[in-house]
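Table 4 source record.
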Amino acid sequence: MIEKLKKLGTSALGVVGLIAMFAIPIVLTILFLKGALWASENLLRALILIGFIVIVLDIVILLPLSVFRRLRPHTGGLIYLSSYLFGLVTWLYGFIVTYALWGGFAVVVGLSFFGVGVVFMAILASLFKAMWEPFFTVLVLAAFTYGSRLAGFAIGNAQPTQNVDLAI
């Protein structure tokens, strides 16, 4: 009888462990979704304003300063760093568009693609719903993100030209 109770206890513990193994990722996903939804609703407007200010600073101050060779590593690094702000705004906006148009399941599917799939899902959702403003907004935000990343990398790693004397 005691052996049967031990086997039953072991089986029950295995079932509880199996349930926990599936429940923990689900609970974490729900908490992440709630946090991302809160951040999108409460922080997105402020981040968009900060993003506009950073774009102006990048174009008006950092790009002209990139003419000077000594400043290129610094200006390139700052432009590259600003791409992370643009990426955050793009991701939060894509999250909101995906959630509003296709719901939480599409957000979870988008998150399963290394987290950046919500931007692609937002593009698809707005395209299939023929909502052109969010479609082009996400595309422009993604272009700013990757454009500033590439520009910052190129400026920061630009080698100064050297005069080569080819006299024989």
